[in-house]
Automatic annotation (TrEMBL), chains A, B, C:
It is a multi-pass membrane protein. It is found in: Cell membrane. This is Trimeric intracellular cation channel family protein. The keyword NAD does not apply. It comes from Terrabacter lapilli. Belongs to the UPF0126 family.
Length: 211, 211, 211
């Protein structure tokens, strides 16, 4: 991987890890876990998506357990949440915003690492991007005993997919640039927040059919 | 892997992916997830078992994220379920039948791929077959917030084990043929359906002991 | 890996697998699963941690599915639990003790295998040790539909971390000896039991802050 990608990769990973650590920590605070429960859930939410990504593309040991900077960012996120956290009613809203930011950072970080790994097809790179992006939140919600965000009402996986497609197409065109990556991450964040704000929902199965 | 195995492998994978996508989609419909929730749960149920299998035998990136045919089958299964699905009371029964079909296809597809991979012992191949077969259903049930089918009352893992043993023994005897594979898959399906129909249950722990 | 480590590795793996199989089986008995449900949960709890460890360090296929001794120990643990299990009120206490023993065995077995694998950094080895130790319990609790022990109140991951750090430091100093390994495992067990007995809890988020 060229140096410029490597630094963008690390920056995106760091952003994603930190915000997902905050989101995991907040869910843990809401569930009244103790200090170590908060730290564990923060780390699981923060590092889960990247670890799954690295397992899928054969990059072992995953950076999520070998890079001290990512580990530090995850632990720091958990600690910050534990010490200073907003009231319970505001927690859900905060989790949503952080989750959207993590979704953007990880959709791009995941597809970027996959598309620059030998032997990973463009289609697989898009899927790795999506899985990286939704993975942390799924791990967080499963451990906390709630149905994962990605399955609940509201557009969630689609913005991640768009971001991943953008990265993979840019890679195919040979025009992977730092600004493309950050734009893609920002776009995912914006689309996800738009869906939350406007309460945009995808269609649900016909009720009449389900009686 | 000889070509004939490769085509049987793909066919079994496709069957397993499609029926598990239907089963995942139906569970999502029952839980009233939206269109994308249905698609995500369908894909997770359909591709989960095969992805775990490929991680276990070191075949990365897993075909579940790199082969567009499997991805298309999974998405198609989710879409079909969303558009046309039976009433709620009938969903549980449908999920059971599809689940049994997926169990058969994946027990054989999993053990076949493992047994034809260098460095995987016969015992490991049987276990990979079982894990491939039950994996999709476990992912589906965990994400949907219900106790996995494999742990509830009724014979479930045993038919999968028998199918996987059959494949591995045939491989040891050098008589892996297409008809052996399909017979094994059919046998798993038949045994599982028999257990469902006759409400065959394995013994449970003595009640008197648990008071 | 030198022979003496290999035999300590196997012994620690066997101990961890057996006691986690008992703990998984007991949880299954408490949930009134049938014989095969008990066996499946016992195997998942027993082998889950080690399988995740081997995936993280790239040792595929994992010993948890390829070594018949570990498989036998897991199945035996499940069977023993099914046939002879204590009353329900005592099950929770038993699970705690077995869980602490498994935590010790796997924290050491996990970090030992990681630290003796080429290309795994000391930091990563500590994390692999923690993940191996808590992994089986997390799998057990997720499958059984309860919030994982590691997130509930009481010191849990910390003893595992101390044990893993001890092993990695000993490896760095070139003084990995059998007695060091067993002492580390015993220490983790003792610390965890102390936390259970004294009901030692880590601090929880300030209540006033969460209204």
């Amino acid at each position: 991987m060229p140096t410029s990608f490597a630094s963008a990769q690390l920056a995106l990973d760091l952003v994603g890890v930190f915000v997902f650590a905050l989101s995991g920590g907040l869910v843990a605070v809401k569930k009244r876990f103790d200090l170590f429960g908060v730290l564990v859930l923060a780390c699981a939410a923060a590092l889960g998506g990247g670890i799954v990504r690295d397992l899928l593309i054969g990059a072992v040991p995953p950076v999520g357990i070998s890079d001290w900077r990512l580990l530090t960012a995850a632990a720091l996120g958990g600690l910050v949440t534990f010490v200073y956290h907003p009231g319970v009613e505001r927690i859900t809203r905060f989790v949503r915003v952080l989750d959207a930011a993590g979704l953007g950072a990880f959709a791009v970080a995941g597809s970027l690492k996959a598309v620059t790994t030998l032997g990973v097809s463009p289609v697989a790179a898009v899927l790795v991007g999506i899985i990286t992006a939704v993975g942390g939140g799924v791990v967080r919600d499963l451990l906390a005993g709630q149905v994962p965000e990605v399955l609940r009402r509201e557009l969630y996986a689609v913005p991640a997919m768009l971001g991943a497609v953008l990265v993979v197409v840019a890679a195919q065109l040979g025009s992977l640039q730092d600004w493309v990556l950050w734009t893609a991450a920002g776009l995912v964040f914006a689309l996800r927040m738009l869906a939350v704000r406007l309460d945009l929902n995808a269609p649900t199965p016909l009720r009449s059919n389900v009686t």
